[in-house]
Specification:
Blueprint (H helix, E strand, L loop, with lengths): L1 E10 L8 E10 L12 E4 L12 E11 L6 E9 L22 E12 L4 E2 L26 H13 L4 E6 L5 E9 L1 H19 L4 E4 L16 E6 L1 H5 L3 H11 L3 H5 L24 E3 L6 E3 L1 H5 L6 E3 L8 H14 L3
Parallel strand pairs: 1-5, 12-13
Antiparallel strand pairs: 1-2, 3-4, 4-5, 6-7, 6-9, 6-10, 6-11, 8-9, 11-14, 13-14
Helix pairs in contact: 1-2, 2-7, 4-7
Length: 340
């Protein structure tokens, strides 16, 4: 019999920005295979996470995905959904809002973030009491003058790959100390699971570096002349992948126009500080789409057009601190409403 360490992860009830919580369950198994079928439900004190009252505080954790924990011996990362005591989805459970049981929708998320120095409370590369050189030389840079935090980023990439996530890439972003990673999954729920697992691995990794991750979309202040952080959502369904029709693409894009408010509500807190119409963003009150247009709300990739209008769309509005479950759920609902 071997002792297995199961790290149960869930999202708390803080609003509008939820936080990751986790705790370890140690079990004995004779021949553990790392499958969901081998896992049981668990519970936690919801009164400590804004998900229940003290007099009736138990909330359920129902496993939905499991990955090897590359930083623990006999360890596994278990993503869970929070359920009420009667088994119904908790109001904080964004995953339960996703209407994609057949995995028709594919998502690729581009997660941007700032690496912050715990001692200075500033992004890496920022001097105390001042500013580094203006943005321009940091994007996809190399060398100690402009590149900060590579050791952390490379180690995080290795952890994600070793955990079995469909990790697709990394790059330094436009501002000093700002980075991005990309994940792709066939199935909206799986895409959300993997972003949260990747965020967990990144946050946990900072504990040994003396850093922390800031997912705020504009951590340097709304008036600073620096790019903010987003989580661009690249998405497709079978129609977008196969239709071969410009008119169909335009009809799907137009379905987003009347529900701008509904999307912005789940696209991340403080996003108004980022979506200003500057720094490669569309204004938060506007809606636009265009081929190869990074200043539009939705970009139609040039590759999609070159392949005869068969491909995907990129919603550039989601903020870096958004919940990928809620973002995907809202995008799916809008795409399904399109009159095509």
């Amino acid at each position: 019999m071997a002792k297995i360490k199961l790290e149960y992860l869930w999202l708390d009830g803080y609003y509008p920005t939820q936080n990751l919580r986790s705790k370890t369950k140690v079990e004995e198994h004779e021949n553990f295979q790392g499958t969901l079928e081998e896992l049981g439900n668990w519970s936690f004190d919801g009164s400590s996470t804004r998900q229940a009252e003290g007099g009736s505080s138990d909330c359920l954790l129902v496993p939905v995905a499991i990955y090897p924990d590359p930083d623990r011996i006999n360890g596994y990362l278990v993503m869970t959904e929070v359920m009420n005591a009667d088994g119904t989805p908790h109001v904080s459970n964004g995953r339960a809002t996703i209407d994609d049981d057949d995995n028709d929708f594919w998502f690729g998320f581009e997660q941007e973030y700032f690496i912050m120095d715990t001692a200075t409370q500033l992004p890496l590369g920022f001097p105390v009491g001042g500013y580094p050189a203006p943005q321009g030389m940091y994007y996809c840079s190399v060398g100690g003058k402009n590149t900060h935090g590579r050791d952390l980023v490379e180690e995080h990439a290795d952890l994600c790959i070793d955990a079995g996530l469909n990790f697709e890439g990394i790059n330094q972003e436009v501002a000093s100390g700002q980075w991005e990673f990309q994940l792709f999954a066939k199935g909206a729920k799986k895409a959300g699971d993997e972003i949260w697992i990747a965020r967990y691995l990144l946050d946990r990794l900072t504990e040994k570096y003396g850093y922390y991750i800031d997912y705020h979309p504009k951590p340097l202040g709304k008036d600073m002349d620096w790019n903010g952080s987003g989580m661009h959502a690249n998405f497709s369904n079978n129609t977008l992948r196969t239709c071969g029709s410009k008119e169909t693409y335009e009809a799907i894009c137009e379905a987003f126009r009347p529900v701008v408010k509904e999307h912005i509500e789940v696209y991340g807190e403080f996003n108004d500080q980022r979506l200003t119409g500057d720094h490669e963003t569309a204004a938060i009150t506007d809606f636009s789409y265009g081929v190869s247009d990074r200043g539009a709300s939705i970009r139609i990739p040039i590759i999609t057009v070159e392949k005869g209008w068969k491909g995907w769309l990129e919603d550039r509005r989601p903020a870096s601190n958004g919940d990928p479950y809620k973002i995907a759920g809202r995008i799916i609902k809008t795409v399904k409403s399109a009159k095509i």
